TrEMBL record:
Stored InterPro entries: Zincin_1, Zincin_1_sf
Organism: Caulobacter henricii
Highest classification ranks of the organism: Bacteria, Pseudomonadati, Pseudomonadota, Alphaproteobacteria, Caulobacterales
Name of the protein in its database record: Neutral zinc metallopeptidase
CDD domains: MMP_ACEL2062
Pfam families: Zincin_1
Coiled-coil stretches noted in the UniProt entry, renumbered to this chain: none
């Protein structure tokens, strides 16, 4: 295949892949994730990286921001909508380095990981579930 005319997917194309992955979630996960917004950026902001103690912006492929379902209350008011950030450049970098996964599968994997946080799962919980799958 001739790659000289190929370009990395744009932010919009990346968003379309993420939206397709979100739309393919099985029930009841899809209904419980319907309110979660998806935002695609090339990299996390310096503030986000600093708050997480991450120096290399290529180390963060995704981030969940919001109040997870396990901590919500009917008394909550003014809560910002939940958001999943997917960071295009680190995901593309991982995809190129790995070479053993389709890009849409990797995007789905990162998205599902971040959706796991929406359900109140920790990174350790998510990794344990992935290892058992």
């Amino acid at each position: 295949m001739d790659w000289t005319a190929r370009l990395a997917p744009s932010l919009d194309q990346f968003a379309a892949l993420a939206e397709a992955a979100l739309a393919a979630l099985p029930e009841p996960f899809a209904a419980l994730s319907a309110e979660v917004g998806i935002r695609i950026e090339d990299f996390a902001t310096e503030e986000v990286l600093d708050s997480l103690g991450i120096q290399d912006p290529f180390e963060l492929t995704g981030l969940y921001q919001g109040v997870d379902l396990s901590r919500r209350s009917v008394l909550d008011s003014g809560v910002q909508p939940s958001m999943v950030f997917l960071y295009r450049r680190p995901i593309l970098d991982e995809w190129c380095e790995r070479g053993d996964v389709a890009l849409d599968d990797l995007i789905r994997h990162v998205l599902v990981h971040e959706i796991g946080h929406h359900f109140g799962l920790s990174d350790d919980d998510i990794h344990r579930i992935e290892d058992d799958a």
